[in-house]
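In the design runs reported in the main text, the only information available to the sequence generator was the tokenized backbone. The following block is the verbatim input for one such run; it is reproduced so that readers can re-run the procedure and compare outputs position by position.
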């Protein structure tokens, strides 16, 4: 949960969250708003730390600019799954989902998948395990997802609200 309130996420930028935000397994959430309205900042500064604090939970985070993340995933695969070739964000997402299935089978826990404009949303939605999906996608509306709106009030503040 992220409590309602005012959050200074960068020295010159804040988010005002109008009501407590819960992210529940089995549900999907879509963050919507113009570029620069604080969606990625929300993920990095508030959401990821809150999800990491959940004991026994799994977190998969696909960054907006995946090129550096791809190097880390390729290195992990080279040590843990020799022979698997990862050359695209879709390959990386597929590898992470397979790795997640193995971990979950050994020790079940809540699963949170966070995607910041990853071009492989279809792979994340196809996961056959109970999970919570939180996405930023400017190109399509995620059916059945709760919408969280980010509205810039000025260059230093955005308001976050949820559609009820």
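Verbatim output:
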């Amino acid at each position: 949960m992220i409590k309602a309130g005012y959050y200074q996420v960068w020295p010159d930028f804040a988010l005002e969250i109008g009501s407590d935000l819960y992210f529940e397994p089995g549900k999907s959430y879509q963050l919507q708003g113009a570029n620069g309205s604080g969606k990625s900042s929300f993920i990095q500064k508030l959401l990821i730390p809150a999800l990491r604090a959940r004991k026994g939970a799994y977190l998969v985070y696909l960054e907006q600019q995946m090129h550096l993340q791809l190097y880390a995933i390729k290195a992990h695969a080279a040590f843990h799954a020799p022979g698997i070739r990862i050359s695209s964000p879709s390959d990386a997402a597929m590898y992470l989902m397979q790795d997640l299935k193995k971990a979950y089978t050994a020790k079940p826990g809540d699963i949170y998948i966070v995607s910041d404009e990853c071009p492989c949303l279809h792979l994340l939605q196809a996961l056959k395990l109970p999970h919570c999906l939180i996405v930023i996608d400017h190109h399509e509306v995620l059916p059945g997802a709760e919408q969280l709106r980010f509205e810039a009030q000025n260059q230093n503040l955005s308001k976050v609200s949820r559609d009820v």
